[in-house]
Amino acid sequence: MANDAKKIRFAPNGSIFIAPAPIEGGGGTTPPTTLGDGVAAPVGYKALGYVDPAGVTLTPSVETQPVEAWQSAAPVLYNVTKASFSIKATLQETNELTTELFWGAQWVQQMTSDPTPVPTGTFRLDLSSTPDFKEISIVVDWQQGSIRSRCVIPRAMVSDRGAIQLNRTENGKYELTLEALDFQGNLGYVLTNDDIVDAITP
Hints:
Blueprint: E1 13-20, E2 46-47, E3 51-69, E4 72-91, H1 96-103, E5 108-111, E6 119-124, E7 136-144, E8 147-161, E9 174-180, E10 189-192
Antiparallel strand pairs: 1-2, 1-7, 3-4, 4-9, 5-6, 7-8, 8-9, 8-10
């Protein structure tokens, strides 16, 4: 196959969307099975907004164990012991969705203790000593011109968080790593309209 510079791809634009994870056996959010238009959120999902210029890192990983045999000095087989898929991104918008995802808790409006409680205008988020990160569903869209791609992770959980830097000259950021969970025998799937695969002629 000849070299083709037109096959070099970038991801100059994209979005991250989240929703409650689907429920095994039915119910919850239905993960999208189409590419969408590259702008609107999939049905049932909400956008996480601006992402750090570094973009989004998608990391599929497989761990294997060699199977050795008496008759060979080299392994005769590799057995898969672990498969994983992670998504890492640094969110730049401070809003209800990003902060609750980062802290693993919900904001609760504070009320006065008068006989007739009224909102105080203050919201509280309790940082538990045993955080309970909820299962979510993630969709990552990216595009280059008319070429669109979408990665769908039906079930995932936050596995790591970065530090928040409070700075006079730099905006607050929320660094998150999310790990895919098994869903009906899969970690997720990728959709694209890129012409990297020969189309089937009916």
